[in-house]
From TrEMBL:
<dbReference type="InterPro" id="IPR003781">
    <property type="entry name" value="CoA-bd"/>
</dbReference>
<dbReference type="InterPro" id="IPR005811">
    <property type="entry name" value="SUCC_ACL_C"/>
</dbReference>
<dbReference type="InterPro" id="IPR016102">
    <property type="entry name" value="Succinyl-CoA_synth-like"/>
</dbReference>
<feature type="domain" description="CoA-binding">
    <location>
        <begin position="191"/>
        <end position="283"/>
    </location>
</feature>
<dbReference type="Pfam" id="PF02629">
    <property type="entry name" value="CoA_binding"/>
</dbReference>
<protein>
    <submittedName>
        <fullName>Acyl-CoA synthetase FdrA</fullName>
    </submittedName>
</protein>
<feature type="domain" description="ATP-citrate synthase/succinyl-CoA ligase C-terminal">
    <location>
        <begin position="347"/>
        <end position="504"/>
    </location>
</feature>
<dbReference type="Pfam" id="PF00549">
    <property type="entry name" value="Ligase_CoA"/>
</dbReference>
Amino acid sequence: MSTRIVIKKNTYFDSVSLMSISTKANQLEGVEQAFVAMATEMNKGVLKNLGLLNDELEQANNGDLMIVIKGASDAANEATLEAIEGLFTRKDNGGSRHEARYATLTSASNNVPESNLAVISVNGAFAAREARQALENDLNVMLFSDNVSLEDELALKQLAHSKGLLMMGPDCGTAIINGAALCFGNAVRRGSIGIVGASGTGSQELSVRIHEFGGGVSQLIGTGGRDLSEKIGGIMMLDAIQMLEDDAQTEVIVLVSKPPAESVARKVLQRAQDCRKPVVVCFLGTKETRADEPGLQFARATKEAALKAVLLTGIKKESLDLHPLNWPLIEEVRSRLKPEQKYIRALFCGGTLCDEAMFAALEKYPDVYSNIQPNPEYRLKDVNVSIAHTFLDFGDDDFTNGKPHPMIDPTNRISRLLQEARDPEVGVIAMDFVLGYGSHEDPVGVMLDAIKEAKAIAARDGRHLEILGYVLGTDLDTPSLAQQCQMLTDAGVIWASSSTNTGLLAREFVCKENAQ
């Protein structure tokens, strides 16, 4: 084996771009390991764990780009390096003819004075500083970076509030502003429904279901996952409601979040009640059931929230295909499973998609474990070991610390899929596949060999293993939603029509009672 190391001094690329390039580099022929990243301490730690860190890399600075290739020979590594350079070149040439690079936010703002939004994806140690600079330059901010302190988040959102600006994030992965999808997003038609989301894939799911039901999205404003915490107090969600209330294109507003702090929920609901436009509220996992009020409706799941929103725009329910649960299919799956195959193992890229499926299971089973379980008693002590019903969010810090997001790189999920397939108590494995801007170019295709191997492992043990898939996307997304679903069908995978149905099907497949 041979190793090739290249350090490009003072060469910055954002983490989203580098994750994508690193993933593509690892798929090149003859590559055992390729690592393309900025020379942060976190990334050096990853290289150390891989046994690839040397003195040269150790001395690299945060602003330096590291390219590390481990391959069969020096010649093979040189060919890989050339291919990686080509990935950077194609990226540089892929934008519009007006695209330009600037060394600082200030120079970009000075050279493009009409710009009004900055998307920031830098190491968390520098993210708050860059976001503050953008806000002080009167730019709205989408902060993709995580590992920003609560104190910094509060200060940034207070500054944005005082200036009437958006401060989306930190750890904000999804937004659609004036029709442009930022970071992770799907191709949906423009319309009159505005979304405010404290959850990335939850917001994507809402936008996709709204599109499927014939509606359209005016704006999708992400807040970051901690906005509805006690400390932050919902500053961004409250400001976003006001912005959508003032937006002439928006007729209906939908709010989506994981369970908020109680005091913040009361504040948000009061603001929603006072809004001049109808508001649909979807706080996933909330046990309290509230009746709809004039101008304020409640939904327990994303599909229900999307449906209520489009009905408020005048679309008739009778014209929609709502995809009710297929009970004959559920009975058929139950009949294939052995009595000991009683557990769900859910392997998700999207945190809110994982949450929604987990909350559906919790309505029926007490023994539901997860790395994102709100109940600490059922939070996994070791994320590498599943217990009973286990729901894993591979996008959580447990799995992404120093590694690409699973929407881009499926490596972690592939190994876990094969691990779960060996467990004789597993009846169904549920997985999501996220299409759209920022995601893997073929999310189903890259998992197919592992899916087939997982089924073969069970078959060799005399078991049937049901794999349930959900493709989050629209008919406008690339790759084709229909093609991705057909690939699942051809591989013997049952696919659900929505995030909501994914959770309901998974929990019913392993239930031996209460068939309808």
